[in-house]
Amino acid sequence: MALPGQVNVPQLVALEAVWCGAADFGSEDATEGCFCGDAGGFVIKKADAHADLPHCEWFCSSLAQIAGVPQVPFSVIRHTDGNDWFGSSWMKGKTADWWNLAVQGVIDFNSIAEDLSRIYVLDLFVHNVDRHANNFMVVPDGNGHKAYSFDYSRSWIINGFPLPDIMTDPSVATISVKNWLKAKFGDYIDIGAANEVLDRIAALDVQGVQRVLATHPKVWLTQQQEDAIIDWWRKGMASDRVAAIRDGLNDGTLI
After folding, report:
1. CB 65 within 8 A of CB 148
2. 147 and 189 share a domain?
3. Which of 90, 99, 77 is closest to 150 using CA atoms?
4. Are residues 155 and 81 in the same domain?
5. Of 110, 135, 143, 253, which sees the most CB atoms within 10 A?
């Protein structure tokens, strides 16, 4: 797993699954799990639901690592069907209904506010429209809790490319959850943490993006799609998007 600001080295050898089978994760995009021996269990994302799903999961998860966003570990998994798919590590200890527990004071919301801020600003960049409350991995951490990001099934190029404008629609799950948390806990977005994420995304150059794309199986992305992503970055559209998000944080429209 890469440190913040670093990029995964190419995963030349996928983790071999010992067993794979149907599992109820409450998601139409993740219906299988795989056990990979000492590496543990993984929630599998295949191209069955959407051809670009494995790439989107990998790219956004990698970008999270680079940008300093708490991210559930992930890997390329050699499924028992012989294909390489995206796998998100099955983390133990997920706190159910964490949002209600936070309202009740059982969870110290302040202990996860920075994590939520980092996740939120990344979601804005990759246009993740489906960050509903269950799409945060909130787990006990020391005397408090920590929130990790996972599940980018409605993010990135799945929304079309180039990306749509920065989302503000309150009916979108990501914005709805942010607004609900704000109503319960006030202006919780940590501007410093959010800007740090944006700084790290802005610092990612074309070569860095190419390295990210090289870390996942080639078949997860067509050459035309890869060229479009590189061209988008090269023409400064990623930087423009970062600037638009930063402006929205500073003037309060995205808070």
Report:
1. no
2. yes
3. 90
4. no
5. 135
